[in-house]
């Protein structure tokens, strides 16, 4: 395991929560057979940290995120958010999925308002919806319906829908995976800027080593299924980062090596 | 052969002055259908006014005058369409239909009142049907009112019950366990099969018919609502749950709106089958309504009354479907490419 140094929290507002994942294992039942997906994963994420989970496709990264979000319960082990056990979903931990999954019957504004409405506080907090739309630069589209948006715009709305809740933990499940490369690069910059401004703890699942290194201050490399932590790498580089940074290139080589892809370098 | 349109001519040779032949063709393309429609309606009007009927129908003269008025409107409307704004464009779009309709009524008039090519009491001429609308109006209106009341009551009850049942089975496995077999057993049975039993078990023929109409509506609405709720992507629930949604929010704000397109298919199918039940119920047991009017007219061999009632019934059914589609378009504006009725 590569040693890791916790960086960052000092410079950011203490909004983010600490996540404590303790000896978590999980498996699925597929046609009666047990398919292990997570094997004894332990991880502590400091408040305000930006952690990328990197691993081969289908290794169980997304499953780990669903456990952290509280959408599923682990077969064994514990998950804690600031010392309280995660028992189910809570708006302090919101997820942005790979698909924007906007509700097609709601306008952009109503989609963003979803969380506040579900918690019954929309009436008094309408300005938060406007602010979240402003934050992602889509105020002009407040009355549009999702089918009228481009892929990148839809994902920005999904981001606004998450941020309007002022989450302590933002969980990003390959949110840029289906976007074209130009939109992707733009949105990577936007995500870093939002995280720096808001200070929430961020977990990003990705299978793109470059994206992980560009965004996160800590990269966790997972093994093939069942996922185990293979390496925990600190990325001590200031923001905004540069894609051509030789330090990042070096780390990228190291990570691809861990994933068994050094031949491509 | 070449076809002419204003735009190609401008594109190919803007400077050339129009030859007389081209100008005429262009004029015919724009005004031709309207002028022909006017001619056809004049022919209809004159056939009524100048030609003696084989039978005795008091409304022939009025109908002839109406035909001439339609002809005049078609003519003036077509020539002056540009000055009539939206109404003018609407008229120009529909004028081919006006033409075909005129040809149809003329043929009908000639085939019945003038030559009796179609055997007479069974195929009344248009003036006989107009006569029904003018002379038997109170009874016809009463029947319309009775049908609308019966249909509306039964349909609304059936739609509401079907919707609630559908949502419950789609949402709760336990409700599904108990309701699904009952639904499978009773649902596919045509509601009209219950008629004989319903009429003696219910206290009144009105309540029996309401029940049957509700049954005919309820089955498709239940099944479609259920399948709509069941097919909602679990990703929507995941999103809502992570944002703090409680189960009631998941049902009311996620499952139901997502299922709504299916629900409207069910409401549409239910409307169709409930019309059938309405008419049969009125023919058999209820002593009012358009179905009863049809039956009554048949008893008196009043064939013109039957056609008149059929036309009204068709307008009502079509109107009901139009209304349903309007409601749907209003509620489902977020959908792309909804079918226009």
Strand-helix topology:
The complex is a heterodimer of chains A (about 260) and B (about 350).
Chain A: E1 19-30, E2 33-45, E3 50-54, H1 61-69, E4 76-81, E5 84-85, E6 93-96, H2 108-112, H3 114-118, H4 126-135, H5 151-163, E7 169-173, H6 181-198, E8 201-206, H7 209-215, E9 218-222, E10 229-234, H8 246-258
Chain B: H1 6-12, H2 20-50, H3 60-79, H4 86-114, H5 126-135, H6 137-171, H7 173-186, H8 195-201, H9 205-230, H10 234-242, H11 247-284, H12 290-299, H13 303-331
Helix pairs in contact in B: 2-3, 2-4, 3-4, 5-13, 6-7, 6-9, 6-11, 6-12, 8-9, 9-11, 10-11, 11-12, 11-13, 12-13
CATH homologous group name of the largest domain in chain A = P-loop containing nucleotide triphosphate hydrolases
Characterize the overall form of chain A: globular
Oligomer: heterodimer
**CATH superfamily name of the largest domain in chain B?**
MetI-like
Task: Provide mean pLDDT of chain A, rounded.
Answer: 84
Distinct helical segment count of chain A: 8
State the order of secondary-structure elements of chain B, H for helix, E for strand: HHHHHHHHHHHHH
Taking the sheet with the most strands of chain A, its summary is: 6 strands, mixed
Which stretches of chain B of 5+ consecutive residues score pLDDT under 50? Answer: 1-15
- What's the arrangement of strands in the largest beta sheet of chain A? 6-7-8-3-9-10
State the name of the first-level CATH class of the largest domain in chain A. Alpha Beta
Work out the count of structural domains of chain B.
2
What's the structural domain tally of chain A?
A: 2
Shape of chain B: flat
Largest interface, per-chain counts? A-B, 28 and 23 residues
Residue fraction in strands of chain A: 15-25%
Q: Ends of chain B: how far apart?
A: 37 Å
Instruction: Please give the share of residues in helix of chain A.
Output: 25-40%
Distance between the termini of chain A: 22 Å
Number of helices of chain B: 13
- By CATH reckoning, the class of the largest domain in chain B would read Mainly Alpha
């Amino acid at each position: 395991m590569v040693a890791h140094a916790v960086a960052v929290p000092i410079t950011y507002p203490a909004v983010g929560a600490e996540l404590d994942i303790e000896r978590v294992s999980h498996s699925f039942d597929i046609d009666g057979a047990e398919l292990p997906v997570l094997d004894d994963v332990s991880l502590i994420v400091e408040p305000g940290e930006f952690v990328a989970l990197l691993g081969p496709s289908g290794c169980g990264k997304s499953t780990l995120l669903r456990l952290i979000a509280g959408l599923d319960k682990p077969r064994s082990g514990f998950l804690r958010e600031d010392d309280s056990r995660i028992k189910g979903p809570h708006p302090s931990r919101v997820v942005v999925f790979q698909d924007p999954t906007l509700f097609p019957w709601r306008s952009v504004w109503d989609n963003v308002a979803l969380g506040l409405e579900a918690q019954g506080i929309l009436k008094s907090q309408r300005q938060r919806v406007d602010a979240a739309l402003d934050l992602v630069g889509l105020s002009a589209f407040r009355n549009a319906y999702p089918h009228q948006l481009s892929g990148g715009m839809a994902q920005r709305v999904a981001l606004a829908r998450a941020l309007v809740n002022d989450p302590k933990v933002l969980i990003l499940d390959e949110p840029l995976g289906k976007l074209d490369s130009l939109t992707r690069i733009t949105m990577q910059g936007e995500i870093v800027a939002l995280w720096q401004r808001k200070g929430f703890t961020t977990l990003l699942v990705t299978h793109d080593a470059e994206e992980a290194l560009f965004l996160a201050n800590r990269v966790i490399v997972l093994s093939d299924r069942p996922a185990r932590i293979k390496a925990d790498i600190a990325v001590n580089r200031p923001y905004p980062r540069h894609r051509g940074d030789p330090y990042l290139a070096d780390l990228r080589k190291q990570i691809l090596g861990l994933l068994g892809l050094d031949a491509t370098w | 052969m070449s076809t002419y349109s204003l735009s190609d001519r401008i594109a190919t040779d803007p400077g050339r002055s129009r030859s007389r032949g081209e100008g005429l063709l262009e004029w015919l393309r724009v005004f031709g259908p309207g002028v022909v429609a006017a001619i056809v309606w004049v022919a209809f009007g004159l056939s009524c006014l100048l030609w003696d009927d084989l039978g005795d129908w008091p409304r022939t003269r009025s109908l002839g005058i109406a035909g001439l008025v339609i002809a005049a409107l078609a003519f003036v409307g077509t020539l002056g369409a540009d000055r009539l704004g939206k109404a003018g464009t609407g008229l120009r779009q529909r004028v081919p239909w006006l033409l075909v309709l005129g040809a149809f009524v003329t043929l009908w008039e000639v085939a019945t009142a003038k030559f009796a090519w179609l055997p007479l009491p069974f195929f009344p001429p248009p003036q006989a049907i107009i006569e029904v609308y003018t002379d038997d109006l109170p009874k016809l209106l009463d029947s319309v009112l009775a049908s609308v009341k019966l249909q509306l009551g039964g349909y609304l009850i059936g739609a509401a019950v079907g919707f609630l049942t559908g949502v419950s089975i789609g949402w709760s496995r336990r409700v599904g366990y108990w309701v699904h077999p009952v639904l499978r057993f009773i649902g596919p049975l045509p509601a009209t099969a219950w008629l004989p039993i319903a009429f003696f078990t219910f206290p009144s023929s009105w309540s029996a018919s309401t029940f049957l109409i509700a049954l005919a509506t309820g089955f498709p609405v239940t099944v479609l609502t259920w399948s709509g709720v069941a097919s909602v992507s679990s990703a929507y629930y995941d999103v809502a749950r992570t944002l703090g949604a409680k189960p009631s929010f998941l049902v009311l704000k996620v499952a139901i709106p997502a299922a709504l397109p299916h629900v409207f298919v069910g409401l549409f199918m239910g409307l169709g089958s409930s019309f059938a039940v309405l008419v049969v119920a009125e023919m058999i047991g209820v002593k009012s309504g358009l179905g009863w009017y049809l039956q009554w007219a048949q008893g008196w061999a009043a064939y013109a009354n039957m056609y008149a009632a059929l036309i009204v019934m068709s307008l009502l059914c079509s109107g009901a479907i139009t209304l349903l589609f309007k409601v749907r378009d209003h509620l489902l504006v977020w959908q792309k490419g909804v079918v226009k009725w």
